[in-house]
Amino acid sequence: MQSQRPVLRQVQKLKMTPQLYQAVRLMALPLQDLKTTIEEELEKNPALQVEEDRSTVSLESLPARESGDGEGDWFDHSSDSGYSRADAEAASDARRQFIEGALSQPESLQEHLLQQLALQPVSEEWVRIGERLIRNLDENGFHQEPLEVLLEGEDPRLVARVIALIQAFDPPGTCVKDVQESLLVQIQNHPSPHPRAAELVSGWLEPLEKQRLREIEKGMHISEAALREVISFLRTLDPLPGRNYSRDVARYVVPDVQVVLQDGEFVILLNDEMIPVLGINPLFSEMSQRKGAAGGGGAGGAGSAAGAVSRDPKARQFVTQSLQDARWFIRTIGQRNETLLKVCRAIVEFQREFFLKGPKYMRPLTLKDVAGEIGVHEATVSRITSAKYIQTEWGIFSLKHFFSNSVPATTATTGSRFSKEGVKEIIREIIEQERAREAQKAPGARGGAPRGETSGSGERGLSDQKIVEILASKGVSLARRTVAKYRGELAIESSYQRRRK
Questions:
Q1: Alpha carbon distance 492, 461 (integer Å)
Q2: What is the mean pLDDT of residues 377-391?
Q3: What is the pTM of this model?
Q4: Distance between CA 368 and CA 126 in Å, rounded?
Q5: Closest listed residue to residue 462, CA positions, set 425, 429, 490, 424
Q6: 402 near 344, Cβ under 8 Å?
Q7: Which range among 162-176, 269-283, 359-373 has the greatest average pLDDT?
Q8: What is the DSSP string of 39-97?
Q9: Do the Cβ atoms of 86 and 78 come closer than 8 Å?
Q10: Residue 62 burial by CB count (10 A; 0-12/13-18/19+): exposed, middle or buried?
Q11: At what angle do helices 179-189 and 197-209 cross, to 10 degrees?
């Protein structure tokens, strides 16, 4: 029979303390979010203060306006005791900010449709169903929840009539389930639609997306010229009509680090102008040093406050905890900036050819390579490079952009010196060179080829297979479908689409 006995064992565990959680969170914050977090910490912890803020300019540091320049405030010495120029300017600024904020808010698709619904001479039941349908639309104008779930128990004939009403609103083609239905609705509501447009959309949309025009011509029994007319009409429609009312605004990227070449060496500059220099409130430091004293001494109110703290246990605990949190916060920000600089130095060393010659010279790089170089864990490298950007002579890039998988080479001697991003830039360069050659050989171009002659490839527009062969000659081994995938990621059309332009 086995007996149970208490056993004492010593086990090491990593406990996620609030301080450690804060350090991990600050490591992953981009510049704008870090500034917001610092402001929140300043409001929460009175032991923390700003020593220097380089992101703002004080009005006191600006040169004062000289008198006698014709711009004096004549009303400052007015007999009207209720007038204040400063109050008037502040009120004017407040009104201007309110107006600018009100005008800068774009109209959403739902608001645009609801306004039109409110103007319709329909019953309250129509309005109730219409509002539910409109609020169910996504940014494209398509249904989010299925109608059988959204309008369960409603009269299907009434729902269909309300949907038809909303579909005729501006922009036409909303309140539908997908792109195909949106195009069909726009064709139906068009004042002069092409007679075969609905047939093309309803039966041949997938071949049309893949540019299988020969298949469409045979299936619809239509000539090439007539099919081109139908396609030209479809291009006047909007497959995603709701996108014109999207509230998404452009986001501006603030680089965290800048790399410049000076005297043949790379210099890494940390963008710390947006981050204020933090320090410890001297009053809290004095109260902490005097916590064992009996009170008295000191200069004025500061000494009496320090003495009062020394006699109150709760106040002493508050001061001690606030100082610990402030010092930890300052140390964590310093560690974040130091780790960011180390990671950037390692990236510059590994990707030296990129910073010297351009994007197509990017090498394969992994988080493990950088982590081993600077002596930290891969998770730390992943956090510090998350949502952060670096400014280079070739543009602004995300730090994650420099970590790229290797692409196999054609020979074993060359090794895997090609990265995925580098190969994508090579593909972009090949297609741009092709476009430049075709532009020079176009009829009517200066020095161009006479009519009837074609390029050396025998066909206008390099195919993906031809790009595979060119890459093989450069030492890069890729399959045709991989080239097509990379070309799609570069937003470059297929050779067939480029030839038809």
A1: 12
A2: 88
A3: 0.54
A4: 61
A5: 429
A6: no
A7: 162-176
A8: HHHHHH-TTEEEEE-TTS--GGGSPPPPTTSS---GGGG-S-TT--HHHHHHHHHHHHH
A9: no
A10: exposed
A11: 150
